[in-house]
Write the structure tokens for this entry.
Amino acid sequence: MAEPAQPEAPEGSLISHLLELRDRLLYSVIAIAVVFGVLMAFVGSGEVYTLIARPLMQVLPPGTNMVATEVASPFLTPIKLTMAVAVVVTIPYLLYQLWAFVAPGLYRHERRLVLPLLVSSTVLFYGGMAFAYFVVFPMAFGFFVQALPPGVTMMTDIRSYLDFVFSMFFAFGIAFEVPVAVVLLARMGVIDPETLAGKRPYVILWAFIVAAVLTPPDIFSQFFLAVPMIILFEIGLFVARRMKRAADAAVDSGRRDLTEHEIEAEFKKRD
């Protein structure tokens, strides 16, 4: 069967795409601003910061607290935290805006993947954050505290801690999107699953390179980001292979269902 035609691009398609991108970005900014305004009353109370600081506070020696080394830090840190939490809360909507911008350029059968990919990408992003909070942070902070030289007390600045935590949150959240990227690219025909499987050694190498760039310069954070990326790559590759086999089987079945007259007419069209 002939591939369904893509939507015709209107005149001035570049301008229309830029306008569409502007609108999607504007909707995203408005959503973040609304959530930011709602959260100010809750995040500003310090309860959310206490929750985020728990992985470090649990491994610090008794009586040890964080410090504020800048005059404005006690005021600016809750605002910065509120903005970061607002972005995290609106991730499903932000991903929806991304898919809504990409969807018009997809084929009809590809658009059916938008909802499953939207749900899976949201779950994977939050899963990456949860993995960082419950697995990586306790082990990494525990190692840092144990590695302190005798006579040295760890006194972490609240702003520096917040920057570290959210950089790790977003690094792990984005890294956990690997299966979605693999499945989407394979489904669109950009990459072939078997070809990609043959390049597995390069993928592993790049996983550690990306982990070294996205995480602080310690081997634990890099290892705990690179290994899940490799595992998720294998999961995405497995799903992409299954989808390709199912698509090939459907095509073969459709060809077998054609009559001799239809097959002959199809070859005449190709000639």
Q: What stands out?
A: The mean pLDDT is 78. The radius of gyration is 24 Å.
